[in-house]
Amino acid sequence: MNAALLKTHLPNHPTQLYLIRHGEVEEKYHKVFGGCRIDMNLSPHGQRQAEALDAWLADTKLDAVYASPMKRVQQTMAPLLARRSVEPIILQDLREIDFGDWTGSRWDEVQKNFGVSAFDWLEIIETNGIANGEDIGELKSRVQECLLKIIHAHPHGKVAIFCHGGIIRVIIALLLEVPLAHLAHFNIEYGSISLVELLPERKHAVEIELLNFRPPVAK
Questions:
Q1: Residue 167: which H helix or E strand, with range?
Q2: pLDDT (tens digit per residue) in 87-116
Q3: Burial 123-138, CB ≥16 within 10 A → b, else e
Q4: What domains does the chain contain, in order, with CATH numbers?
């Protein structure tokens, strides 16, 4: 995302974005490319991760909560909403990436079925290499539109964005102005929080304060 464009949406005060990936999904979808076409539920462990996220954020004053419409995300933010009077804002364009013909394939099946390594998925997406998958330009455009809407509506606020691993990577890539494939160096795991602070008065207007932090889950 162009730094000048970012700064036009922010006053000279920090804005904090809590990027929260949904909890673990039901077992039959582990290591499966579900994307936006499979609207799966959380596993029991995923439910506990949702409760851990709520507990960790209990003392954090949030000015707004945004979320993907997908069930796994809605279920993840449910414990937090139960404790707060905030009304979540659902943005359709925060849905997960469309994996096209890969949808429903396990990671270990992608090599056999499509002749590429699933571990290169970010690079493949960035070159529109998934048949019938989401166009990279359209993906970045829809996520950027959401991002600008959020930061424009909540200058120098604290905002939680409940969404998906792929979308969190796109958000960070846009903010840092790096290729999406570079985000393959970092994990964005189930039930994790990544905190980004936007500081428009500084030369480096984006700082990653927390990356892929998973609050401990009660046993």
A1: helix 165-176
A2: 999 999 999 999 999 999 999 999 999 999
A3: bbbbeeebeebbebee
A4: 3-213 (3.40.50.1240)
